[in-house]
């Protein structure tokens, strides 16, 4: 079957492009002035060890039957593993897949495969996140981060259904099962879709090879995460299954609460492409589009920022995804000042709770507002 080409859009080449050139120059000047590398530092490597330990130490306790049959202690181990999954997702594999640990590609590639350890598939993640999400943030049909198969409406440019009226209530449940669906079925559907749109070519993969890889990774994952605890933990099987669900519910909700308030907000412009000379084109340049569809939150919360891999500085991450997240806090004032100079928005929520509340309000709004007509 011949692959189809993705119906991509082009970004405007004019406008406030001076913003991106200026902010990049100022970021380079910051690193030169302080004589530091934009890659991982010692703090990042310590965090990596902590996040991996948060996942593997409780797992070792489960296999070692440290709980001694106490259900609450047993479940607490799974809960900690859920925190570990979230931490690895935001603060370990995320940076590695963006190539920001080291200028050495082998180092980044090795650490990036921590995603397979927690049940994912690196190839799919890079296509969905690095290529589609970071290029076409909030563009319906291209940014798969806002594609929920119609269950949740995350853009005013998507069709509306009657049940969306209640999505601000039920969306949190689907957020909880996000990683469970991802680690079980999503990768298979996703890689087939990427083959259809010829997105596996740059990864030097055939669909058959990708399917075999995913099947192998999933078999190993479910083998060690479920089968081994069922064999070695001296506790009824249903508590093992329950603990596994606790881990995924914890990770899914945490990851969603970190990523969703970064883009699905009332301040995001969600501008769709327009048809110009038989081509689909965005009104703004890429950098202006990104800053208009992204929101920071809780900039003064050092603990949250540490655990969330600096992704509360989502604006800095989208503009500088090639820089390790440990530097975002220092880059944020530079980006904010430059954005203001160029008359651009710098969307920011003061606290994490306010960001979640604002996201909930946006979910409610999206569940009621009619689709925005696309300008021709």
Automatic annotation (TrEMBL):
Domain Fatty acid desaturase positions: 71-349
One BP term from GO: lipid biosynthetic process
Entries under InterPro entries matching the protein: FA_desaturase_dom, Fatty_acid_desaturase
Coiled coil (UniProt feature): none
Protein's recorded name: Acyl-CoA desaturase
A GO CC term attached to the entry: membrane
Keywords for the protein's UniProt record, in alphabetical order: Membrane, Transmembrane, Transmembrane helix
GO terms assigned for molecular function: oxidoreductase activity, acting on paired donors, with oxidation of a pair of donors resulting in the reduction of molecular oxygen to two molecules of water
Superkingdom, natural source: Bacteria
Transmembrane portions of the chain: 44-64, 71-93, 169-189, 210-231, 237-259
Entries under Pfam families matching the protein: FA_desaturase
């Amino acid at each position: 079957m011949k692959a189809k080409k993705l119906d991509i859009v082009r970004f405007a080449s004019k406008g406030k492009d001076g913003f991106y050139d200026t902010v990049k120059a100022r970021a380079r000047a910051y690193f030169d002035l302080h004589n530091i590398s934009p890659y991982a530092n010692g703090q990042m490597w310590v965090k990596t060890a902590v996040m991996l330990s948060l996942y593997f130490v409780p797992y070792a306790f489960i296999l070692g039957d440290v709980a001694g049959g106490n259900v609450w202690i047993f479940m607490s181990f799974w809960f900690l593993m859920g925190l570990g999954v979230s931490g690895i997702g935001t603060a370990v594999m995320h940076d590695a897949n963006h190539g920001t640990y080291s200028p050495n590609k082998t180092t980044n590639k090795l650490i990036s495969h921590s995603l397979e350890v927690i049940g994912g598939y690196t190839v799919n993640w890079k296509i969905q996140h690095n290529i589609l999400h970071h290029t076409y943030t909030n563009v319906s049909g291209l940014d798969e981060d806002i594609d929920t198969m119609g269950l949740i409406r995350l853009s005013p440019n998507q069709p509306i259904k009657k049940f969306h009226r209640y999505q601000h209530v039920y969306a949190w449940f689907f957020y909880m099962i996000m990683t469970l669906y991802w680690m079980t079925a999503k990768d298979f559907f996703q890689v087939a879709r990427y083959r259809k749109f010829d997105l596996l070519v740059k990864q030097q993969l055939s669909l058959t090879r990708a399917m075999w890889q995913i099947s192998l990774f999933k078999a190993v994952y479910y083998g060690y995460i479920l089968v081994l605890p069922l064999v070695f933990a001296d506790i009824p099987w249903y508590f093992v299954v329950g603990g596994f669900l606790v881990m995924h519910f914890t990770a899914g909700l945490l990851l969603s609460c970190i990523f969703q308030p970064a883009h699905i907000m009332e301040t995001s412009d969600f501008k769709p492409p327009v048809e110009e000379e038989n081509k689909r084109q965005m009104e703004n340049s890429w950098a202006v589009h990104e800053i208009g569809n992204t929101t920071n939150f809780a900039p003064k919360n050092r603990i949250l920022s540490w655990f969330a891999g600096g992704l509360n500085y989502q604006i800095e991450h989208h503009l500088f995804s090639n820089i390790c997240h440990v530097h975002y806090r220092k880059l944020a004032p530079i980006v904010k000042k430059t954005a203001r100079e160029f008359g651009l928005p710098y969307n920011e929520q003061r606290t994490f709770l306010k960001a979640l509340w604002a996201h909930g309000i946006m979910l409610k709004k999206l569940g009621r507002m009619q689709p925005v007509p696309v300008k021709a």
